[in-house]
Amino acid sequence: MTDLISAFILGLMGAGHCIAMCGGLAIASGINSRLSHALLYSFGRISSYALIGFLVGAAGFWLTNSFKPLLYGLKIFSALLLILLALYIGKWSYQITKLEKVSAGLWRWLAPLAQRLIQDNSHFGRFCAGAVWGWLPCGLVYSVLTWAAASANPLKSAAIMFSFGLGTWPALLLSATISRQMHQFLNQKWVRSTLAITLIIFAFYMLITGVMQLFLR
């Protein structure tokens, strides 16, 4: 349960990044003009997060049974990414955004499909558009995804990504005015610093645990 709550908070704290990456698209395409369309678009996006989480969780489960040292290495790597994510939330470093370049090639292939789907005003079209846009390159998503993969449990990994997606909902689902007000609150220095430090502590716990499992097994 702690992991799910933490994932939700990470999604919530990434509001500014979500608005920058997807907010303009949602407004320009008219997705937020109808509540049903906004809900379906967001549910499609979050469904993609959960699907990817399930897949990487299954891979982590396979590693657990085939080559455990590699899984411990993944836990260490995910802890380091969470530290970078905390630095991003605290606005102390933006290195995590460089991860978005990793899947730039995939997105160039998916972008034309996404653009066509975004013009489909049917309910199914809105859901599919959200599902495709869920693959948009995002350092925030990648860092949480690596953490989810380290759970080595497909269902738990999917649940972590789904909870993270729920945390991103307010920023994209609410009206532009409310989203801006929420972003202003989350952007306050004391709020960012408090949550960033909390995340760093959690990440160091994961890091120490991973190192101990790797070298003291």
From TrEMBL:
InterPro entries of this UniProt entry?
A: UreH-like_TM_dom
Is Membrane tagged as a keyword? yes
* All copies of domain Urease accessory protein UreH-like transmembrane, residue ranges: 7-204
| Keywords in alphabetical order | Membrane, Transmembrane, Transmembrane helix
State the Pfam families in the record.
DsbD_2
Q: Which residues cross the membrane?
A: 6-27, 39-64, 70-89, 124-145, 157-178, 190-216
Superkingdom: Bacteria
Q: What is the name listed in the Swiss-Prot or TrEMBL entry for this protein?
A: Urease accessory protein UreH-like transmembrane domain-containing protein
Q: What organism does the UniProt record list as the source?
A: Catenovulum agarivorans DS-2
